[in-house]
Design brief:
Radius of gyration: 24 Å
Oligomer: single chain
Catalytic activity: 6-phospho-D-gluconate = 2-dehydro-3-deoxy-6-phospho-D-gluconate + H2O
GO molecular function, one term: 4 iron, 4 sulfur cluster binding
Cofactor: [4Fe-4S] cluster
Structural class: alpha/beta
Low-confidence stretches: none
Strand content: 5-15%
Shape: globular
Helix content: 25-40%
Pfam families: ILV_EDD_C, ILVD_EDD_N
Keywords: 4Fe-4S, Carbohydrate metabolism, Gluconate utilization, Iron, Iron-sulfur, Lyase, Metal-binding
């Protein structure tokens, strides 16, 4: 059990709240476990289709129930730098499975889009919905019921949450997530941000901007800043779904390959045919989810996970709320400084001690539930390690020292935190509910009271900035950007102009029913405002000139208008027809119609 009674109390209330849905979920998992995977009862035609391309030896093995078969769900494509390394993984996993006395097959592929490519483009409006689509696509792959365990190959923003939702839907299967690792360090993220601001001001051209971006994103692996993709990897390790120490090893290295082979063999070892049967739906529980949230706060992770964690938890019958996440943030200190919360990238974080050091510090402070099941066995203590390549080419793990990290400016001890809380808070008030990430926002900028300037898309704000109309104190209200309006795209194009205005000395902030994700930085941004404008939320009643008060310290978001006057206002509308077609958006109309609210996970299938 966690030693901190405050975290134990929050966990207990999640358990109590979740009882009806969690018990029903566990009953379904138990029934599926009891039924098992019985390939021998498939019809001969079913089975022949299932192993038609296998070798003669594999066909013999799969014709019965004694040899385990490992299903691979892959998000490989060679456009995404983070997913390109997965091209060679299936062959590697098949070899490892063969060495372990099993068989491995690619059960299916799932789509994997890059938010970095689609930022500010029409395709970005498919991004959030791709998470639920990925869960569905993975379910199709696993529905053949040919598999005793599964491994999931995915890294980036919506891909890992979607894969987790699928894995928990197939909760009777043991499951391991296998990462690809971050790209090597290129141009510093602070310099990249500086060039973006210069471009926004018209001081450098497209040539200089593209040169800068290409120096930052230059090879295979995850982008090196601490956005949603790298927050995903942290979460998988904190929740016990990765092999210990595997999150941030660079692609195409001997250690990366050794970890991949080890994960495949471990997945076969925890099937029902062995002595360590670990169905993922029973393994992941309320304590695992809380550990993930604790890790999010301790590292200053992505705001996207205020939605993804809720949707992932619901897939396991667990009812997590924004209030739980916010209350945990008040308790857990910030122990890592990784861009945009600092100048270091994830490679620097790993070199400083990485996940092993972070977990050691969180365990020492009593912030983690140690008594959880993981794919590696019992307890989080096994994850407080340094991972290396042994002389024989296999994975070697050593306990992490209790002393200072290799770089205390990047990774600190629990008793000397960078700030006393995780910096991710829920805001409430007469505008609705929202979340804000303040780990990179200076204390003097966490309270902004200023008149509203209302926009219905991010291009309108860009145009106003370029026209010189925003050189003043204001709070930008960018609405009709929620999931029902247009799929809730990330609004990263707002970051450079707002950053420029803040650097000029103006008090600026953002209020939106859209997203800013893991790159939320130095400008205070109340995001995911719920109810959204399309649902008639109060944000749709705000008018130009209304005084707004955003207080990230007290957790309030208010429009300072007489309550009776504000209530009597008509709800604004917007012409959203331009968001309904092009780049596949017409295919996602049912998603926009049926999607749940941001505080419920913005999911089509789980609320």
């Amino acid at each position: 059990m966690t030693a901190d009674p405050r975290i134990a109390e929050i966990t207990a209330r999640i358990i109590e709240r979740s009882k009806p849905t969690r018990e029903a979920y566990l009953d379904r998992v138990s029934q599926a476990v009891a039924q098992g995977v019985h390939r021998s009862v498939l019809s001969c035609g079913n089975l022949a289709h299932g192993f038609a391309v296998c070798s003669p030896a594999e066909k013999v093995a799969l014709s019965g129930d004694t040899v385990p078969n490992l299903g691979i769900i892959t998000a490989y494509n060679d456009m995404l730098s983070a997913h390109q390394p997965f091209e060679t993984y299936p062959a590697m996993i098949r070899d490892a499975a063969r060495e372990a006395g099993g068989v491995a097959q690619v059960a299916g592929g799932v789509p994997a889009m890059c938010d970095g490519v689609t930022q500010g483009q029409p395709g970005m409006e498919l991004s959030l919905f791709s998470r639920d689509l990925i869960a569905m696509a993975a379910a199709v792959g696993l529905s053949h019921n040919m598999f005793d365990a599964a491994v999931f190959l995915g890294v980036c923003d919506k891909i890992v949450p979607g894969l987790v939702m699928a894995a928990l839907t197939f909760g009777h299967l043991p499951t391991i997530f296998i990462p690809a690792g971050p790209m090597t360090t290129g141009q510093g993220n602070d310099e990249k941000s500086h060039i973006r601001q210069l471009y926004a001001e018209g001081k450098v051209g497209r040539k200089e901007l593209l040169e800068s971006e290409s120096k930052s994103y230059h090879g295979p692996g995850t982008c090196t800043f601490y956005g949603t993709a790298n927050s995903n990897q942290m979460l998988m390790e904190m929740m016990g779904l990765h092999m210990p120490g595997s999150s941030f090893i660079n692609p195409n290295t001997p250690l990366r390959d050794a970890l991949t082979k080890e994960a495949a063999k471990r997945a076969l070892a925890i099937t029902a045919g062995g002595n360590e049967f670990t169905p993922v739906g029973q393994m992941i529980d309320e304590r695992s989810i809380v550990n993930g949230v604790v890790g999010l706060h301790a590292t200053g992770g992505s705001t996207n996970h205020t939605m993804h964690l809720i949707a992932m938890a619901r897939a396991a019958g667990i009812q997590l709320t924004w209030q739980d996440i916010s209350d945990l943030s008040d308790i857990v200190p910030l122990l890592a400084r990784v861009y945009p919360n600092g100048l270091a990238d994830v490679n620097h974080f790993h070199a400083a001690g990485g996940m092993g050091y972070l977990i050691r510090q969180l365990l020492k402070a009593g912030f983690l539930h140690d008594d959880v099941r993981t794919v590696f066995g019992e307890g989080m203590e096994a994850y407080a390690i340094d991972v290396k390549l042994g002389e024989d080419g296999t994975v070697k793990r050593e306990p992490i020292d209790d002393g200072p990290s290799a770089d205390p400016k990047v990774l600190t001890t629990h008793d000397k935190p960078f700030q006393p809380n995780g910096g991710l808070k829920m805001l409430t008030g007469n505008v609705g509910k929202a979340v804000i990430k303040i780990s990179a926002v200076k204390p003097e900028r966490r309270l902004i009271e200023a008149p509203a300037i209302v926009f219905h898309d991010q291009q309108a704000l860009q145009d106003a900035f370029k026209a010189g109309e925003l050189n003043r104190d204001f709070i930008a209200v960018v609405r009709f950007q929620g999931p029902k309006s247009n799929g809730m795209p990330e609004l990263h194009r707002l970051t450079p102009p707002l950053g420029v205005l803040q650097d000029r000395g103006y008090k600026v902030a953002l209020v939106t029913d859209g997203r800013m994700s893991g790159a939320s930085g130095k400008v205070p941004a109340a995001i995911h405002v719920t109810p959204e404008a399309k649902d008639g939320g109060p944000i749709a009643k705000i008018q130009d000139g209304d005084m707004l008060r955003l207080d990230a310290e007290t957790g309030t978001l208010e429009v300072l208008v007489d309550a009776e006057t504000f209530a009597a206002r008509e709800v604004a509308t917007a012409d959203l027809s331009g968001n309904e077609f092009g780049m596949g958006r017409e295919l996602f109309a049912p998603f926009r119609h049926h999607v749940g609210t941001a505080d419920q996970g913005a999911s089509v299938v789980f609320g």
